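Project standup — Tuesday

K.O.: blocked on the structure for the chain from last sprint. Re-posting the sequence here as requested.
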Amino acid sequence: MTDKDDLWALEKRFWTEGADGVHHLTAKGAIAVLPYPAGILVDEAIWRNNAVAQRWRTVAFGDLAITRKGDVAVLAYCVSAERAEDPIYEALCTSTYLHDDGVWLRLSHQQTPSGPHD
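H.V.: unblocked you, prediction finished:
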């Protein structure tokens, strides 16, 4: 697999595995900007938020874009995600990863809720 493939697979894990599966793949001091009521979450507050801790049953990414400069990579995409008893969630997302000592760590993540995408 290439770094590009690894990064997309890692991003999907953040949606489907929940906090226990990916907490160790988040950089210290990471930032998440999530829709209300979560808002801006920093470091361990990310993992204490119920919206982050829950897993999504199905996730589909679209409009994939990635850029990399040295040890930093930025992913941008549309997501359509579903979990039990919630309506389908659609958003525009970005995640920034840092390649640190041979491991990709998510440094930031942002979601902007949106309508349906093709």
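K.O.: great, moving the ticket to review. The mean pLDDT is 88. The helical segments are 3-16, 18-22, 45-48, 50-53.
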